[in-house]
Design a protein that fits this description.
Blueprint (H helix, E strand, L loop, with lengths): L5 E6 L11 E6 L3 H4 L12 E7 L6 H10 L6 H4 L10 H15 L5 H17 L2 E8 L5 H4 L2 H18 L3 E9 L4 H13 L8 E7 L11 H9 L3 E2 L2 E2 L5 H11 L3 E4 L7 H10 L2 E4 L1 H6 L11 H6 L4 E3 L4 H4 L3 H10 L5 H13 L5 H16 L3
Parallel strand pairs: 3-4, 4-5, 5-6, 6-7, 8-9, 9-10, 10-11
Antiparallel strand pairs: 1-2
Helix pairs in contact: 5-7, 8-9, 16-17
């Protein structure tokens, strides 16, 4: 049972959304998971799959600084000082985010840089309990430095295969087109992705569509998704973070997604959410980035429970921890500390991430068995 309202100082495992490793004073009902912190299992030990992480945005801050120094590039102050973003959910806020993201991406200049990013993403995920990572990349930005689109994608795929051998986290790749480029560019990327389509680590598993939802017409990208679908690639476009239910409905109708990147604002339309659940479309929910981009004022206001109570399959993701701060394990801490999830519910979230993944059956079985072991172990 929950206790009565109380004023408590709760320990914050890891860092808060502000980046400070401190305690927070909270007024309100005390969630079960706070009442006996000694019975809470460590979230970094919970096996899980990570389905929403961007290539450049996965970088460690120190890695970015080292790449910038190596290539003689001066970083904006926000990136030099590791200021975590808190933006407004309008075009001005997105412009600032995009400017910083582009500045970070400009520091990736050769094959060595690209390989380092993939390996470190796998190492960081492995340290946080992830046994499967689907890393999203648009090779367009890196192509000029390595000889073209095909070499850029091949470098990432080879690095993913190598990281899968060297760490306990297997890495598959999602090729993601950008809304700010012409739909014909998306078709080129879809054909490239189709050439490397597979079903395991170091292969292309899915095709996505990212960047500002307010840009471009979704139906104009449908042809690219049909190309990808014919090659057996899963459709995993972004939708439902900056724009609401109407845009989600368009993405579902035009792109036939297996998962939606974010999709969190489907909670605003019960009928739409019911249709998503019935269609078996999973949602890649990234609470920390939702707050950083101003979609919700606080992590507690992200409708995580509402989505799950409606029957949605939810996979927590970190999105762009380089800019937003919290990595994968922190998203589970948000579920525990801001939404009151107990260990059994966290285990269910992790199961959802594995089942919604594009991992091979053997990998799924191994991770699901690990989740069961974590949930049944002493606290």
């Amino acid at each position: 049972m929950r206790s009565r309202h109380a004023v408590v100082a709760r320990p914050h495992a890891g860092r808060s959304l502000s980046g400070r490793p401190d305690t927070a004073v909270v007024v309100g009902p005390v969630p079960r998971s706070w009442q006996n912190p000694f019975m809470s299992r460590p979230v970094h030990a919970l096996p899980k799959a990570h389905l929403h992480l961007h290539f450049t945005g996965s970088m460690r801050p120190q890695t970015l600084k080292e790449l910038a120094a190596r290539h003689g590039i001066r970083l904006p102050e926000s990136l030099r000082e590791q200021h975590l973003l808190r933006l407004t959910p309008d075009e001005r806020g997105w412009f600032r985010f995009q400017r910083l993201y582009d500045a970070a991406r400009a520091c990736v200049r050769d094959e060595q840089d690209m390989r380092r990013i993939v390996l470190e993403a796998a190492q960081d995920d492995a340290a946080e309990g992830s046994g499967w990572l689907e890393l999203q990349v648009d090779p367009t930005s890196y192509a000029p430095f390595v000889g073209g689109l095909t070499p850029a994608l091949e470098i990432v795929l080879n690095a993913a295969a190598d990281a899968s051998r060297r760490t306990s986290c297997q890495v598959g790749i999602v090729v993601a087109a950008s809304r700010i480029r012409h739909p014909l560019d998306a078709r080129i990327l879809a054909r490239l992705a189709a050439r490397y389509a597979g079903d395991g680590p170091g292969q292309v598993l899915g095709f996505g569509l990212s960047n500002d939802e307010r840009r471009g017409n979704t139906h104009e990208f449908a042809a690219a998704f049909r190309i990808a679908a014919r090659a057996g690639l899963a459709a995993v476009p972004h939708g439902g973070e900056l724009l609401g239910p109407e845009h989600i409905a368009t993405a579902v109708r035009e792109l036939s997604p297996r998962r939606l990147g974010h999709g969190v604002r489907s909670a605003e339309d019960p009928d739409l959410l019911r249709g998503i659940v019935e269609a078996g479309i999973a949602l890649e929910v990234c609470p920390a980035s939702n707050v950083a981009l101003g979609v919700y004022p606080t992590a507690a206001e992200v409708p995580l429970r509402q989505l799950l109570d409606a029957g949605a399959t939810v996979a927590l993701g970190a999105d762009d921890p380089l800019l937003f701060g919290p990595r994968l394990a922190d998203q589970y801490r948000i579920a525990r500390q801001d939404h009151g999830f107990d260990d059994g519910q966290l285990a269910d979230l992790a199961r959802g991430s594995v089942r919604a993944s594009l991992a091979p059956p053997g990998t799924k079985a191994r991770l699901l068995a690990g989740i069961d072991a974590w949930a049944s172990s002493p606290g």
